[in-house]
Amino acid sequence: MYKLEPIAANSAIVYITSPDPITATGVIQRLAAHLNRTFANQLTDYVPANRSLLLQFDSPQNCRLQPLNAAISQFFDHADETPDTASRLHEVPALYDGEDLHPVAQQTGLSVNEIIELHSGRVYTVVAVGFLPGFAYLSGLHKSLRLPRKITPRARVPQGSLAIAEEYSGVYPQASPGGWHLLGRVPIPLVSPFTDLKPGESPNHFAVGDQVKFRAITGADYVALGGRCGE
Question: Which Gene3D superfamilies does the UniProt entry name for this protein (predicted)?
Answer without folding.
Answer: Cyclophilin-like (2.40.100.10)
